[in-house]
Amino acid sequence: MKENKFKIIGNKAIIDNSKICVIKTSEHGEQSIRSLVYLNTQQVVTVNNDLAEYYNIYVSYNDKEVAVINFENIIRNISKDDITLILEKDKDGNVGIKNSYAKNLTLLIPFEAYLKQEGITDPDIITKQRSYFFNKY
């Protein structure tokens, strides 16, 4: 089994003020939730490249701005690499995140703007989304 991990790189000041929650769903439908970064503390979140896994990465910065990136380990069975997430600012100073295979940053936006963008109005879903962005798992 080739078990790698998530790692986070980028601007230390941004990482130290961020929370990153990884929701992994296996090809069998099993789901796990774990905090990768909670403020300036990082935890190990493993990746199993022998199975198909789908990732939802919830990111918050300064408890105000948020983003979600989604991807799967399409390189399973051939990759010996960790999955690298990059937190950095764009040329205009906006905070964003991407994985090492993406070309563009996904910019963080205010939580309320995220809810509007995604069309989320149900109070129960808002509570769940809020917990993914701001709670420790």
Structural commentary:
This protein is an alpha+beta fold. Helices cover 18% and strands 46% of the residues. The protein has a six-stranded antiparallel β-sheet with strand order 4-3-2-6-7-11. Strands 5-1-8-9-10 form a five-stranded mixed β-sheet. The protein starts with a strand and ends with a helix.
Write the layout of secondary structure elements.
Layout lengths: L2 E8 L1 H5 L1 E9 L4 E8 L2 E2 L3 E3 L4 E9 L3 E8 L10 E7 L5 E5 L6 E2 L1 E2 H8 L4 H12 L3
Parallel strand pairs: 1-8
Antiparallel strand pairs: 1-5, 2-3, 2-6, 3-4, 6-7, 7-11, 8-9, 9-10
Gap from first CA to last CA: 25 Å
Mean pLDDT equals 90
- Tell me the β content: over 45%
Give the % helix: 10-25%
Which properties best describe this structure?
six-stranded antiparallel beta sheet; 137 residues; 46% strand
Brief write-up:
This protein is an alpha+beta fold and 137 residues long.
